[in-house]
Amino acid sequence: MTTRLYYDQPELLEFDSAVEEISDMSGSEAGAGSRPALILRETAFYPTSGGQVHDTGWITVVGERVRVAEVVEAEDGRVVHYLETPALTGAEAHSRTGADGRFSIGAAVHGSIDAGRRRDHMQQHTGQHVLSAAFIELYQMPTVSFHMGEDYCSIDLAAAALTAAQVEKAEKRANEIVAANRPVRIRYVRREEAEKLGLRKLPPAERDELRLIEVTDFDLSACGGTHVGATGQIGAILLRKSEKTRQGVRVEFVCGGRAVAAARRDFAALTEAAALFSAQMGDVPEMIRKTFEESKGWRRQRDEALEELAEVMARAAVRGIGSSGDRGIGSSEPSGAVAPAERIVITRVFADRDAGFAKLFAQKAVRAGAGIVALVGSTVNPPGVVFAQTPGGTGDMGALLKQALAAVGGRGGGSRDFAQGGVPAGCDLEKLLRDAAAQIL
Ligand SMILES: [Zn+2]
């Protein structure tokens, strides 16, 4: 069991110790992903546990400074320091652990914790205690879990719902405790004693002695993490997103330096948005709302104009074929033929209008008279075809389309009067429509 210096000295960032165990140095048992690791007699490195992520830093052995990339807690209580150094071969391991004495059992080492990272973790973790206690004090919402990520932290509350006003009030209360700079104390008590103290959080019954973290006159809970010495060091607690989860409500938050960084990012984004609108920052939501409304209006006008255009083009196409009796089929200009039994077949490929317009054109065309079949395509990505006939016509557009698509590897379908589908890019639509028209004529 490694002695954990951070339990009683959370401010300790430099320490001396000795190598107690060397793991994974040999090439024989080491898998491809294995890393050298050290276990020390005592350590100030915090291993990932209780929602708090591990420290990083350096271990110096006989003048060699090696990066500590990850620290984990073994089941038996040992703290394992994974080193960021190339995996050693068996021969090297032997010489390094034997001949030159480095990494040998008992060798003196010096540990240095990455101070910036640790202080950040202490701010987030202590902030979490304060925030969890604020949710209890105000709304009796207990925290069921805590997660510390690289960018933000979150707590899960056992609550059915959380309003924006509640979020704001909890944030305000938590920051009052920060501003009051209440001392954060560590003490140890027997389990029976702890049960009488009314802790916010009591761990599962496995240990006789509990380490308690007390935010003076505000929160008392059992915890093995690292915390700041007084709440003022948390800096600030900023609540971000809150969302419903299966178990309750998840609240994202950031503390101290992270809160400042988040505010800076938000400010930069908002400044950029305001500049785009040539507006004041506070006016950005209103500007966005106005732009949405305007674009909705433009879209409606565009749709109406397209519909009118399709109508005009379709009528012109039907009229042109009906009067001239032009039997030519397949040009990208409207073309068609008068089929037996007074059937008019129009084919048309659009290279500058999408499949949506092709559909509009086909729908307008078949409504322009009796016995009309419109075979229309668009080469605009994604390319597609629409086959339609005047409702109740004698053809079967669904079957015709299926046959046409089968030949080119397209997909789609429909009814007797209307069918549509997609075709692979580069497909010769002129030919496809010509072949389909030939089936009817
Ligand atoms: Zn804690």
Quick check: average pLDDT?
88
Bound molecules: zinc ion
The order of strands across the largest sheet is 2-3-7-6-5-8
Please summarize the sheet with the most strands.
Answer: 6 strands, antiparallel, barrel
Describe this structure in words.
The chain has 441 residues and is of the alpha+beta class. The protein folds into three domains: 111 residues, Elongation Factor Tu (Ef-tu), domain 3; 157 residues, Threonyl-tRNA Synthetase, Chain A, domain 2 (2-Layer Sandwich); 137 residues, Roll (Diaminopimelate Epimerase, Chain A, domain 1), CATH 3.10.310. 35% of the residues lie in helices and 28% in strands. The protein is built from nine helices and 21 strands. The strands form five sheets. The protein has a six-stranded antiparallel β-barrel. Strands 16-17-18-19-21-20 form a six-stranded mixed beta sheet, sandwiched between helices. A four-stranded antiparallel beta sheet has the order 9-10-15-14. A hairpin with a 5-residue loop joins strand 18 and strand 19. Helix 2 packs across helix 3.
